[in-house]
C-alpha cells in the first residue's frame, strides 16, 4: 500500500490529481483513515505493534503530498510567468505628484535671495508672551498699538496675569535674536502670524517675513538698498521702484512704509514701473528702546528692521487676487496657478 500511494503521489500530473490521492488516502473515507480508526478496536498488543506502522505511513504520505504539491505549484507558477507577459508600454492611471504650496515656495525663494546677501534664517515660537510680542518692542501695556493688533489671547492664568498669545507679527523674533548672541546680526525670520481679522485680503493666520540687521554704523541707506535688491531679485525685474513713506511703528524710529510701483501690461497690473503704488512692507531703524530692552547699548549698535507679508508677495508675483484660497487646500486652485501637476 505504501509503495502504491507514494507512486501515485509522485506521478500525480496536477494539483487536482494529487488531491484525489490525498482524499483516497487521508480523507474521511480514506484508506489510512480507516486503518487509524481500526486501531481502536485492537487489543493493546496488536495496537502496540500496528500503531507505529500506521502513524509512520500517514506521516510519510502526508509529507510526500506536501512535497509534490510544492513542486506542482512551482511548475504552475513558472508556466504562468512564461505564458503571461506584461505590456510595459500601456499608459497607467495618472497619479498626481505632490507639489509645493505657493507660500512655501515664496519663503524658499526669499530665504535663498537673503542667503546670497548674507542673512541667516531665524525663528521663534508662534505662541508668544506679551513681553516679546509687545513690551520689548517698545509697546507698553497702555499703548494704543496693542488694540490695533487684534490679538488672539490665551485665557488669563489663575494669578490674573496674561500669560500667552498668538504672535501678531514676526517682530518678536527680533527680540529673541538680539538676546541670543552678540551682534552683528543679519537675519530673516519667516513664519505664521495671527490676527483676528478675515476678508478677501485678510485671514486670521497669515505669513510674514521679518528682516533684522544690527551692526555698527547702519543707516537708512542700507535699509533702502537691501529692500530694493531683494525685491528686484524676488520679482525678477530691474525696473522695480520703491517709495518710502514716513510712517509710525513703536519699534522703529524713523519708520517707513514701503510702496512698490506698478504699471499696466496689456491691461493687467504688474509690479514694476511707477504708474501707481501699493504698500508692500513696514520698516525702519530699530528704536533705541528695543536695542536697550535686549541688553545692548544703542550708542554702540544700530540697525534696521522690516516686515512684510509673504502671502501678499505670493499674490503679487503669481497673480492671485484672493487670499482665502491659500488656506483652503483645494488642488484645483493650486493647479490653476501652476503649483500642482
Ligand atoms: N511688525 C510690523 C507689522 O506687522 C512690520 C514691521 C516690522 C515694521 C519691522 C517695521 C519693522 O506690521
TrEMBL record:
Per the record, the coiled-coil ranges are: 58-87
Q: Where is the Aminoacyl-transfer RNA synthetases class-II family profile domain?
A: 104-325
Cofactor annotation: Mg(2+)
At the top level of its lineage, which domain of life is listed?
Bacteria
Residues annotated as binding Mg(2+): 253
Q: Which GO terms describe its biological process?
A: phenylalanyl-tRNA aminoacylation
- Where found, per UniProt? Cytoplasm
The GO terms this record gives for MF are: ATP binding; magnesium ion binding; phenylalanine-tRNA ligase activity; tRNA binding
Entry-linked InterPro entries:
aa-tRNA-synth_II, aa-tRNA-synth_II/BPL/LPL, Phe-tRNA-synth_IIc_asu, Phe-tRNA_ligase_II_N, Phe_tRNA_ligase_alpha1_bac, Phenylalanyl-tRNA_Synthase, tRNA-bd_arm
EC numbers listed for it are 6.1.1.20
User: What keywords is this UniProt entry annotated with?
Assistant: Aminoacyl-tRNA synthetase, ATP-binding, Coiled coil, Cytoplasm, Ligase, Magnesium, Metal-binding, Nucleotide-binding, Protein biosynthesis
> Do the record's keywords include Methyltransferase?
no
The record's GO CC annotations read: cytoplasm
Q: What's noted on cofactor binding?
A: Binds 2 magnesium ions per tetramer.
Q: Give the reaction(s) catalysed.
A: tRNA(Phe) + L-phenylalanine + ATP = L-phenylalanyl-tRNA(Phe) + AMP + diphosphate + H(+)
The answer to whether keyword ATP-binding applies is yes
PROSITE patterns, per the entry: AA_TRNA_LIGASE_II (PS50862)
Family named by the database record: Belongs to the class-II aminoacyl-tRNA synthetase family. Phe-tRNA synthetase alpha subunit type 1 subfamily.
Q: Which PANTHER family match?
A: PHENYLALANINE--TRNA LIGASE, MITOCHONDRIAL (PTHR11538:SF41), PHENYLALANYL-TRNA SYNTHETASE (PTHR11538)
Quaternary structure (record): Tetramer of two alpha and two beta subunits.
Protein name (Swiss-Prot/TrEMBL): Phenylalanine--tRNA ligase alpha subunit
Organism of origin: Stakelama pacifica
Gene symbol here is pheS
